[in-house]
Amino acid sequence: MGENAKEGSKKEVLFQRRLAELRSKNEQFPWTLGETKAEFEIPKEESKLLSEKELDRDLSESEVERRALLELASLSFNFRTFYKRLHYELRRAKRYTRPLSILLVAVDRLEQIGNKGGNDAKMQVIEAVARVVLSSIRDVDIPGRCREDVFGIILPETPRSGAEVAAERLRTKLEDLNVVAGWQNYTITASVGACCYPGRAIEAEELFAQVVEVLLATMRSGGNSVAFAEP
Predict the structure, then answer these.
(1) Predicted confidence (pLDDT) per residue in 145-186, tens digit
(2) Is the dihedral of CA 78, 223, 156, 134 positive or negative?
(3) C-beta of residue 84 within 8 angstroms of C-beta of residue 31
(4) How far is CA 175 from each of CA 131, 138, 226, rounded to the nearest angstrom?
(5) Which of 7, 50, 64, 188 could form a disulfide with 177 if both were Cys (CB 3.0 to 4.6 A apart)?
């Protein structure tokens, strides 16, 4: 491993440690992070973004979370923590008999954007979509990266009626989004899959599997729409 690669790896470890410290302080993850697997592919593409940035111990919590959402280098970590948080929030919803919803937001035709404009264009689109996601959710909602082209949002205390409003608001905002990258203009649309508790799914794995299923069906049918798993 070259010196640049070693330095990048060291910075990645420090970043993840900083993120874990903040989440532990906020009692977001009151357990030991174990190996959690879900039926959802996590791409293994590399990114230079994190390795090119100097980490700052004085970063605000919101900036650390924002980086975790945007950086491909922290994608697998971000998905694991998002999945762990889903387990926690569902357990809390069961205990207090409260509703819970989850959204998966996928950028339509991201691969085509990459083929046309390269990785830089693709990354600018991902970052633009991430900013819309972050600006569209409540403080109590939990965002995460689930795949290169997919963002997850956990909506605590939210029944289907509220999730429908949130999902359609996100879809509409992204439909109006235009990204200029490399002298090219890209019009963005998104597919949104959703699943709610209580419903057929009673475990986190089932909830996530159902929302993935409806998301993929929505993407295959042309995208730019919202679909809910059957209750």
Answers:
(1) 888 788 999 999 999 999 999 999 999 999 988 888 878 888
(2) positive
(3) yes
(4) 14, 20, 12
(5) 188
State the amino acid at position 132 in one-letter form: V
Any residues with CB less than 8 A from the CB of 56 and at least 6 apart, and which?
none
Output the six-digit token pair for 172.
Answer: 């509409």
Q: Which helix (H) or strand (E) holds 25?
A: helix 3-25
How far is the C-alpha of 142 from the C-alpha of 86, rounded, in Å? 9
Please give the order of strands across the beta sheet that includes 190-197.
142-147, 150-156, 100-107, 190-197, 226-228
Task: Give the span between the Cα atoms of 32 and 53, in whole angstroms.
Answer: 28
- pLDDT tens sequence across 27-73: 443 333 333 333 343 333 322 233 333 445 566 666 665 666 655 44
Show the tokens assigned to 78. Answer: 């971000």
Sort strands 190-197 and 226-228 into parallel, antiparallel or unpaired: parallel
The residue type at 144 = G
Q: What is the pTM of this model?
A: 0.71
Total Cβ atoms within 10 A of residue 183 = 6
Q: What is d(CA 22, CA 27) in angstroms, rounded to the nearest whole number?
A: 9
Burial degree of 216 (CB within 10 A; 0-12, 13-18, 19+): middle
Q: Delineate the domains of the chain, giving CATH numbers in brackets.
A: 3-228 (3.30.70.270)
What are the tokens at 203?
């475990």
Question: Do the Cβ atoms of 227 and 168 come closer than 8 Å?
Answer: no
* Alpha helices per DSSP H over 26-144: 61-70, 75-95, 110-136
